[in-house]
Structure formats: C-alpha cells, structure tokens
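Problem: given the chain below (349 residues), write out its structure.
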Amino acid sequence: MKKIFIFAMMAVLAMGALTSCEDDYADATSPHEYSESENPPLKGSDATNLVSSSVKMRQAEAGREVSTINLADYADQIQQTLGISLDEAINGLSDGSVRFLPVNPNRRQWDKTPANAGDNTWALSAGGVVTDEASASAIMQFIPSSKQVQIKLTSNAAAGIIPVTFGLVKTDDSAYSKNIRIQSLVTVMDASVADVAVTIPKGDYASNTFKFSDIAKNIEFAFGETNLYNIAKGLDTDNDVYDVYIMNADGTLSGGPGKYTANGAGYWLDQKMNIVSWGKDDFALFIEPTIWDDEKSDYYADGGGFNIGRLSNDTPASGSVLNLSIVLKKHDAAATDKTLTINFTLTFE
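Solution.
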C-alpha cells in the first residue's frame, strides 16, 4: 500500500513537471515585444535588406556641401522588402504603420532616439551612431515630402569614412522584421588636399590661371591663414614663407628652393611631370605662381594663384589630359606641420 502511494505521488509530480515544461516552452517561443525604449536588432540579411552606396564629401566644405540620397532610386528594393511601394511607405509614416529610423551600425540595431538636430534630423558620430549635436561629425536629415535624405558634414568631421545608415520599417511587429536599410559610406576628403580641374587653351605659351580663392578653406585648414594676401606675399622667393614642390608618383617630393626652373617658385615640366628647364628635351608645360598685382603695385589681395600653361599649340597635344600634384609647405615647417596638396587635372584643348 505504501509503495502504491509513493508511485502515485511520483506520477502526479511528473505530470506537474511536464505541464510546467510545456508552459515554459510556450513562453520561450513567444516573440519578444520591444518597447519604445528598446532598440531591436536588425532582421534580414544584408544581402536582401541592405543597399549601399559611396559618396565623397570635402572636409573643407563642412556645413555647406550637401550629399542627397533619393529614396526613389531604391523604389524596387523597398517594394521587395516591405511589400509596399515607396509612396505607400511615405504615406504610412503618417499613421505609424511605417517608421523612418537611423541604424546603429556598430551594434547592428535600429536606433529609436528621437530626432535631436531639428525636424527629422539626427546628429551622427564619426562611426555613424546617433550622438549629441556638439560632438557630431555629420548631420542626417530625412525629408519625406521630397523622398530624400540629406547629409552634411560638421566642423568635427575628420578624414576617413562615416557610415550613414538608416531605413524604413513596417511596424506590424515590434521586431521590425520587414525593413529596408540604406547605407551611404561617406568618404571625408582631407581638407589639406584639394582636387582642381584646369583647362589649358590652344596656342603657343597659352595658359590659364587657377586662383587660391577657390580653395580658401583648404588653405585655412592647412596653414591657419584666412588673409590670402599673405599667401601671395609668402610665395615671393625673395622672402619666402611658403615653398612649392612637385609630388612624384611615389609620393616623394622634388624641387623646392634653389631648384625652381620657371618664374618665381615655378617649374618647367615634361609630360611625365619631371622637372626640366626651358629649352631642354621634352619640356612641355609650366606652372608658376602669379602673385603680383601690377595695377596696384602690390601683392594680389585675393592671393593670386598659379598660372599653368603649355609650350605650344601642339605640345602637349590637343586632347591630352595630364595629372600634376604640387605641395605647398611652410619654409620653416616642422615635420609634424600640415602641408597643402593640390591635385591638378589638366586638360589641353
């Protein structure tokens, strides 16, 4: 009798344990409901839910240059991932069935932080994470009416890549399993490097002038100089503050004080950008500072610039496109001081 009672009790406990396990199993498989204070992890693979592009932005134009992402360019992907059209997604923002959210690329999760830099505008760190506006390297603004996202750099932006990532999600479930993610890899171009295109007209000794005022922000970044008059004055070889060098293909520098071969701190070059003298074999083009304003008998108030020209109507040949890189350095620069590199793309008519 005692054995029967013990077996009965064991059976009751076993049934209770099974029931408890079933309850636990049901709880464990129930989808988690994310509250507004929780940031859900990204659902869906990058192969199916992420579209990516790249853009270059200039550090020297921070706050002025705008990079625009048109969501219409991704209308097909939006239809495939969300199951609705771009117009329907935009309309869904009004009733809450669709949300626009930044993405934290480091943690791979949505970021529900409210817009903190204006209407539908978020401040982003160098790593692409929402941060306070004072610390931000970039500002991202969503403009539903034009179906665009605009990106601007801030003065904090350093040379490198900022991953600006955002997306649209359907709010059918709190995990946002239906979503599209868009990423723009913003390459911040070092302000101590300027890319410049110059067209040289036809004719013997024909030339064109590039003005320092076109890269005033780069000059300010490299040398801390805002008065371009001082750049013109500083390029005078009689009292040089700045020296001019030719950058070779391997990144080394040629020329400098005592090695100029054209007027002032200038050079005659062959078409491989080797420094040569006028009249030597293969001499083809020249670059020299233009710094003196004859009308005012003084240095150019706007800094002047570089005069770049060709030897003749045929040299370099019409249609040629040559690349020339020069480096400006302070005459007494320390090894750690900034320099200014100007990459010229020269097109000969």
